[in-house]
Amino acid sequence: MKKSDEGNAFEHVVRNTTFEHVMLIGGLVVAGYALIRSYDFVWEAAIFPRFVATVTIIGCALLLVRNYVPAPFSAFLQESDAFTGMEAVIEDTADQEPGASPEPTRELDRPISGITFMSVALAGVAVVGYLIGLLWAILAFIFLFGRWFDLSLSATILLTLGGGLIVYAFQWLFNIPVIHGVLL
Amino acid sequence: MIDPEIAIHSLEMVFGWPALGWLTLGVLVGIILGVIPGLGPGLGLATVLPFTFLLDGFDAIVLLMAIYLGTVYGGSVTAILINTPGTAQAAATCLDGYPMSRQGKAKDALVISAASSSSGGIIAGLLILAMTPILISILLFFGSPEYFLVALFGISLIAIVSQGAIVKGLVAGAFGLLVSTIGYPIATGQPRYTFDLLLLTDGISFIAVLIGLFAISEMIKLSAESGSISKSDTDIRGPLSPGLRFVANNPITQGKASVIGLLVGAVPGAGASISNFVSYAEEMRSNRGTEEFGEGNPRGVMASEGANNATVFGALIPTLSFGIPGSGSTAILLGGLLMHGINPGPQMFSENLEFTTALFLALMLGCVITLIVGLFFVTRLSIFTKVSTNYLIPLIVALAIIGTLTIRNNFLDVFTVILFGIIGFYMRKYDFSIVALVLGVILGPIAEENLIRSLQLSRGSIDIFFATPLRLLLVLLIVLSLMSPVIKRLWTRRRGASPQS
């Protein structure tokens, strides 16, 4: 194969890769690891993880190749809701629920989407919370959220204070370690 | 019918303090959550769940059930007033409820909704209490092999009836079961998949998974939408009597809706999001040619609303007897039961019958509270349809994270809740069933324990799963559910070939 063909094939794969593929490959890796490690356990501890890991591996693999298998088998893999026959109705309402909102998607002039922002910010809460304390991580998250989604400054500050109050109240009531992390 | 002595003790539990207070509070919170567009029972229950560990087991379950019940009713208010079902359980209510509002009959629609919802729940509760002896005799046939098979059947059934491709649902369920194997297994003292990390020795908390999948993922989804604020100013003044009279004059519609709600609710995975449509469709079928639906027919509102609260009762049957929830919300309820050391099983209808009866009576009382709130405070409830979710998202995220940490004081749970929140969002986006995943995580230890016990009894032979007619039936049901895509395809092709079709 020529280098340019290889480059095109790589580009094609990258262009067509979605988060679903990432999840399925992640599932495959995790289940593969679980299956291999299960051979180190005694019989009673091994049989159940071995069984479910095998099912997960087969399922993930089938879903990954579903567009490349013969049409009837592909249709089987994508078939939904066998009993009720109400797929369309349920799907419509499920899409609405619980947002159920016919309102348009929020459009903000930002370099990344709101969903990406939320995912990254939440991951940040976990990491920053672990390092310097959950209280500070949550305060920072709420403030950033308010600014990102164009809430007024006063509303953002009020929300941040409200969030801080919630976290602090829990610290006071249940004595959970939220003020300090592993670094501070 | 249940023993009167048990009934009296159960009534004492329900009307005792603080259970009655938690019941009332739960219904009110639930109704408000249902009325706010964007929030639903799953989110409400998941957010409240960690805080219930402060309560006594009965009070905690009553609070959770009351929130669920209230949310199901609350969803109908927005369905009627702004054509936006607060929850999927009220989706069919929009079809005739909103046209009624546009015709100036919003108050009638709201009264019919409150009265039929509450009556539906009470009828379903009475039917369940009447059926208890039958349930007990059925449950006595279940031992370890049956419970393992029921757990597998529950996951496969939920994977099938949930939204999205069946194979995706099964993969989600299997992955959930796999997640549950982290930590110390019940059968041996050998840790699994802990990487020698202290944080992982107690395993992954199913509560953290559940809160991540239901609360955090929902907040990520909502953050992409405009703040759901109703701009409607529908006139909801008027007398209560026309709506109440309509419900009282249509007992057959009410009875049918209640029974449909109860039966559909008892099917694992089906839930109220289906029952309200099934009941509505049945009402349309039985009145074909005599009445028009979809243009403001009060019977349509009654059929939908009469079924959805009854479904809450129905969903509790498989949840309490087998640990197989009827819906996402009952999966969280199941989490609540396990969190408080209440193990579902036949004992819920034998040794713990008093507790179970009290739960159903509490739900029935919750229906009465729903009716009172619905009739007398509904005009004030409409204020909540104007709450913007923009202000709720960061606070719910904070509550969900801190609440999760509170349960075990293990920082792993913070990572879990956020990781599964992000995974849950993308699972919804790509049509994977999050209920199947949750169920896998919750049922994993139960399924494994029963599998190992069965195999120990049979000295490692899988013949034990085919040894009795009941086990064979369960195996057959699992196979049928797994083969359902093929069966559906063949059925569709056959119907297509038939000239009558």
Strand content of chain B: under 5%
- Put simply, the count of helices of chain B is 21
**Estimated structural class of chain B:** mainly alpha
Helix content of chain A: over 70%
| Count of extended strands of chain A | 0
Low-pLDDT runs of chain A: 82-104
As an assembly, this protein is: heterodimer
Order of helices and strands of chain B: HHHHHHHHHHHHHHHHHHHHH
Helix content of chain B: 55-70%
Low-confidence stretches of chain B: none
Q: Work out the strand percent of chain A.
A: under 5%
The major beta sheet of chain A can be summarized as: none
Order of helices and strands of chain A: HHHHHHHH
Radius of gyration of chain A: 23 Å
Outline of chain B: globular
The beta-strand count of chain B equals: 0
> What is the CA-based Rg of chain B, rounded?
22 Å
Largest sheet of chain B: none
Mean pLDDT, all residues of chain A: 80
- Overall geometric form of chain A: extended
Describe this structure as you would to a colleague.
The complex is a heterodimer of chains A (184) and B (501). By secondary structure, chain A is mainly alpha-helical. Chain A contains eight helices and no strands. Chain A is extended. The termini of chain A are far apart. The relative contact order of chain A is 0.06. With 501 residues, chain B is an all-alpha fold. Chain B has helices spanning 4-15, 19-35, 41-48, 57-82, 91-102, 106-139, 144-161, 166-179, 206-223, 241-248, 251-266, 272-286, 298-322, 328-339, 353-376, 378-381, 393-408, 412-429, 434-457, 469-482, 484-497. The longest helix of chain B is centred in the first third of the chain and has 34 residues, at 106-139. The chains are: A mainly alpha (184), B mainly alpha (501). The interface between A and B is large, with 85 and 96 residues.
